[in-house]
C-alpha cells in the first residue's frame, strides 16, 4: 500500500522499481528484502536491520537532497513511528561527501569496521533520539512542529 506523506512534495513510502535500481546502483548493494522506504524524486532512504531500539539507514541522494523538511520526515519516522532510541548509518571511509553530510546532520562516529565494503573500511555513525534536532521528541517538542 502506498502512503503519500506529503502530496505537494511527493514524499512517499513506496519506491518504483526504477528508483530501487537507482538506489542499488548508487550504494553498490542490493536492496534488503525486509525494509521500509522514504522516497522523493532526488533521494531514497532505506530503513533496515530494525531491532526495536535501533534502525539502520542507507541513503542515496542527488546533490541538494537534504532539505530540512525531508530530513525532518526521516527522523520523525525513525524516532516517533518506529520508536527507536537511536539510528545507525554506515559510510565508506573514502566517501568524503557522505562523511561531511552525516556529521552535518548530527551523527557521531562510533567506530570502524575494517575492510567491510569491498575491501574498504566502513565507518559506523549513530544518532540517539536525545541528540537529534530534527523532529518532535516524544513527550516534548524540539524546534518547530512539523505537519505529517
Can you put this structure into words, describing what you see?
It contains three helices and eight strands. It has one domain: Gcn5-related N-acetyltransferase (GNAT) (Aminopeptidase, 3-Layer(aba) Sandwich). The protein is globular and about 40 Å long. 24% of the residues lie in helices and 34% in strands. The strands form two sheets. It has a six-stranded mixed beta sheet, with helices on both faces. It is α+β, with helices and mostly antiparallel strands and 148 residues long. The two termini are 18 Å apart. The relative contact order is 0.14.
Concise synopsis of the structure shown:
The protein has helices at 17-27, 68-81, 96-105; strands spanning 4-6, 11-12, 36-40, 43-48, 54-61, 86-92, 108-117, 120-128. By secondary structure, the chain is α+β, with helices and mostly antiparallel strands.
Q: What is the strand and helix layout of this fold?
A:
Blueprint: E1 4-6, E2 11-12, H1 17-27, E3 36-40, E4 43-48, E5 54-61, H2 68-81, E6 86-92, H3 96-105, E7 108-117, E8 120-128
Parallel strand pairs: 5-6
Antiparallel strand pairs: 1-2, 3-4, 4-5, 6-8, 7-8
State the separation between the terminal residues, measured CA to CA.
18 Å
Neighbour order of strands in the largest sheet: 3-4-5-6-8-7
**Secondary structure: helix percent:** 10-25%
Shape by Cα distribution: globular
Number of strands: 8
Quote the CATH topology. Answer: Aminopeptidase
CATH superfamily, by name, is Gcn5-related N-acetyltransferase (GNAT)
Kindly provide the name of the CATH class: Alpha Beta
Cα-atom Rg, whole angstroms? 15 Å
Strand content: 25-35%
Give the topology string: H per helix, E per strand: EEHEEEHEHEE
Poorly predicted sequence stretches spanning 5 or more consecutive residues: 1-8, 141-148
Provide the residue-averaged pLDDT: 85
